[in-house]
């Protein structure tokens, strides 16, 4: 390979989602040359990995990508899928990034003379800095037990779910009760499908409390600006599951107990299939109780804030369970249940095997401080809790991108001074 023929960029951004384009925006603002590489199309995940009735769980006013704040008529509403795509299309048009779409990065390796060699499906390039903006949701998680289930049962991952009509007639088992699992279970429930839900340890929160959206209260209380270093769990908070709630139909709580009262069947964590029966943990009572404790705990924190600030608001309240399990059910006869389909909602694994840099821990997660790694020239953007709780949202990813670009600009300026000397 002749390095003289390889096109060089000061910065290469891997990933063309909102994080990558936010980085591109700030690089352009500072006049730093760069290239965005996207293996699909920019913002593709929002169009291809969300169900038809998907909507934001945070109010529209939190949508504040660089140079592109939400300016629609419903700042306290929740954009639905088509509106999200339109908002992101508008952002891309404003950024007008230098991007190569349909190009995958095969390998990034350090060069002996400094910087990086970037091998892609459309040829090789080099860069002084690499910003990894591909997120952390790469490989859908489906347990090996899925291979032993009867072939007649349709199985899909949450990233493939679109609507109830795509699944065969019959009951549906939703595995996982995080944001996707709880919302997909609700989507199927509202469509009139019989739903079995394997409940995990995800927490929940209220949609509205004491006259305002809970997100708005928490924003006023500084929760979304708390750096990971100040959180009681420190970096451990990055492993937390997000609270389940929905913005659907103007926003409301998701109460699994209410669904159960209406006919949804709740079980504990799915552990195995023995050839005839599904086997579950007996953790359902504990999981529901813990989710409610979190719900009431957040509301209590809001109560304290209201009292401390002397804010006029409707009176406080406390959630009381509307349904209790009659007892733990450790097994479910698969044939007798009528389950015709399973939707796996148990997350994704990161896959950064293409990046040859000593920046990962034993679980394959990058180690960094606000996106800046100990490996010179390697950065990450768009990960949950990159810096704050808001880092994975439209409202704060631009702030994280600005920080990284400032770091790159300072390094480039330092290299320029050294060259001049």
What's the helix and strand layout?
Elements: E1 7-14, H1 18-29, E2 34-38, H2 44-48, E3 64-65, E4 68-69, H3 81-95, E5 99-101, E6 105-110, E7 116-120, E8 123-132, E9 139-140, E10 154-157, E11 171-175, H4 179-190, E12 195-198, E13 208-209, E14 212-213, H5 214-220, H6 256-261, E15 265-267, E16 270-273, E17 277-280, H7 284-309, E18 331-333, H8 334-337, E19 339-344, E20 348-349, E21 378-380, H9 397-420
Parallel strand pairs: 1-2, 1-8, 2-5, 8-21, 10-19, 11-12, 11-19, 12-15
Antiparallel strand pairs: 3-4, 6-7, 7-8, 9-20, 13-14, 16-17, 17-18
Helix pairs in contact: 1-3, 1-9
Summarize the structure in words.
The protein has two domains: 3-138 and 350-420, FAD/NAD(P)-binding domain, CATH 3.50.50; 140-344, FAD/NAD(P)-binding domain. Helices cover 26% and strands 20% of the residues. The protein has nine helices and 21 strands. The protein has helices at 18-29, 44-48, 81-95, 179-190, 214-220, 256-261, 284-309, 334-337, 397-420; strands at residues 7-14, 34-38, 64-65, 68-69, 99-101, 105-110, 116-120, 123-132, 139-140, 154-157, 171-175, 195-198, 208-209, 212-213, 265-267, 270-273, 277-280, 331-333, 339-344, 348-349, 378-380. The longest helix is centred in the last third of the chain and has 26 residues, at 284-309.
Helix content: 25-40%
Main sheet summary: 7 strands, mixed
| Helix/sheet category | alpha/beta
- Proportion in β-strands: 15-25%
CATH superfamily membership of the largest domain: FAD/NAD(P)-binding domain
The low-confidence runs, each spanning 5 or more residues with pLDDT under 50, are none
Number of discrete domains: 2
Identify the CATH class of the largest domain: Alpha Beta
Task: Give the C-alpha Rg.
Answer: 23 Å
CATH topology of the largest domain: FAD/NAD(P)-binding domain
What sequence of helices (H) and strands (E) makes up the elements?
EHEHEEHEEEEEEEHEEEHHEEEHEHEEEH
Shape: globular
Number of helices, counting only DSSP H or I runs of 4 residues or more: 9
CA distance, first residue to last residue: 32 Å
Corresponding CATH architecture of the largest domain = 3-Layer(bba) Sandwich
């Amino acid at each position: 390979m002749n390095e003289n023929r390889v096109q060089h960029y000061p910065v290469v951004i891997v990933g063309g989602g909102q994080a990558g384009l936010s980085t591109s925006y700030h690089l352009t603002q500072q006049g730093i040359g760069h290239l965005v590489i996207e293996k699909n199309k920019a913002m593709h995940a929002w169009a291809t990995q969300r169900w038809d009735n998907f909507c934001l769980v945070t109010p529209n006013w939190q949508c504040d990508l660089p140079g592109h704040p939400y300016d629609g008529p419903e700042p306290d509403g929740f954009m639905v899928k088509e509106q999200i795509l339109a908002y992101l299309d508008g952002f891309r048009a404003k950024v007008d990034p230098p991007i190569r779409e349909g190009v995958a990065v095969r390998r990034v390796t350090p060069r002996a003379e400094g910087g990086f060699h970037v091998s892609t499906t459309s040829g090789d390039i080099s860069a002084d800095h690499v910003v990894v903006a591909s997120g952390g949701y790469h490989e859908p998680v489906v347990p090996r037990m899925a291979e032993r289930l009867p072939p007649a049962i349709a199985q899909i991952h949450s990233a493939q779910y679109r609507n109830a009509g795509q699944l065969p007639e019959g009951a549906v088992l939703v595995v996982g009760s995080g944001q996707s699992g709880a919302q997909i279970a609700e989507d199927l429930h509202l469509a009139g499908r019989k739903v079995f839900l394997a409940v995990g340890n995800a927490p929940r929160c209220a949609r509205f409390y004491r006259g305002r959206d809970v997100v708005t209260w928490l924003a006023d209380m500084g929760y979304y600006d708390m750096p990971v270093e100040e959180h009681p769990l420190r970096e451990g908070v990055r492993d937390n599951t997000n609270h389940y709630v929905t913005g659907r139909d103007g926003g409301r709580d998701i109460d699994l107990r209410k669904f159960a009262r209406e006919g949804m069947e709740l079980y504990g964590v799915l552990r195995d299939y023995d050839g005839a029966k599904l086997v579950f943990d007996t953790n359902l009572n504990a999981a529901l109780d813990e989710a409610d404790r979190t719900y009431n705990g957040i509301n209590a924190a809001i109560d304290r804030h209201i009292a401390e600030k002397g804010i006029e608001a409707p009176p406080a309240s406390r959630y009381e369970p509307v349904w209790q399990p009659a007892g733990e059910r450790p097994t479910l006869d698969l044939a007798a249940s009528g389950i015709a389909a399973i939707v796996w909602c148990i997350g994704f694994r990161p896959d950064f095997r293409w990046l040859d840099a000593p920046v990962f821990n034993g679980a394959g997660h990058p180690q960094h401080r606000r996106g800046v790694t100990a490996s010179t020239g390697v950065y990450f953007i768009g990960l949950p809790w990159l810096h704050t709780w808001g880092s994975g949202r439209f409202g704060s990813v631009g702030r994280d991108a600005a920080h990284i670009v400032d770091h790159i600009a300072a390094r480039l300026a330092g290299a320029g001074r050294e060259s001049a000397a």
